[in-house]
Amino acid sequence: MKKASIVTSFGRYSDTELMIKAQVIVEKMKDNVYFIDPDPAIVDIESALAAFEAAITYAKEGNKLQLLDRKSKRSTLVNLLVSLSLYVKLKAKDNGQALASSGFTMRKTPEPVCILSKPQNFKVEPGYAGTIKISLKTIQGAKAYLYEYRKKGMHEWTVLLDTKSKMLLNGLESGKEYEFRATGIGVIAQRVYSDIISSFIL
């Protein structure tokens, strides 16, 4: 029987996929009874993830130095994740249950390779001033969700990433009409978006 193992490389991940995977690993490793003394520490990975997310945002401006900074922050995060994966393998040995609990991808159990279904029950609900609540039905096989919004009439979408099927957006302009859409993120890069919903912000 093939021994249980985890994937210890991250080169195939896009920047967005790497952020998602790192966030999943952080959540799974916190207070994990199989791994009580993670090395490197989870707080270090959280800091590297936050720095990488910020670098991605700044790099959208296309400045060469910001692009290099994004590459550097990605490398830092990947190195920490690789080190953590080696720690997990050492501590878990061949315990498949322990390995699976870590958030790392299992080698022995391939992830589904199907396109995720279109989001269902996608809703937006204005909250207090400048905010709106977004929710959708949990999508089977989704590792995370992309929530996108823009002012009515604008072309570019602002993209937010979250592992939950509901979130609260804030910082929106009161009295303005916005458009919203969402999609699940799985193994395959192809995305199926929800219908676009428009709403005015209180």
Describe this entry's structure for a reader.
Helix content is 34%, strand content 19%. With 202 residues, it is an alpha+beta fold. The protein has 2 domains: 15-101; 123-200, Immunoglobulins (Immunoglobulin-like). The protein has a 4-stranded antiparallel β-sheet with strand order 4-3-6-7, covered by helices on one side. Helix 1 (15-29) runs antiparallel to helix 2 and helix 2 packs antiparallel against helix 3 (64-92). The longest helix has 29 residues, at 64-92. The radius of gyration is 19 Å and the shape is globular. The mean pLDDT is 89.
Summarize, please.
InterPro entries: FN3_dom (IPR003961), FN3_sf (IPR036116). The chain contains 4 helices and 7 strands; from the N terminus they run H-H-H-H-E-E-E-E-E-E-E.
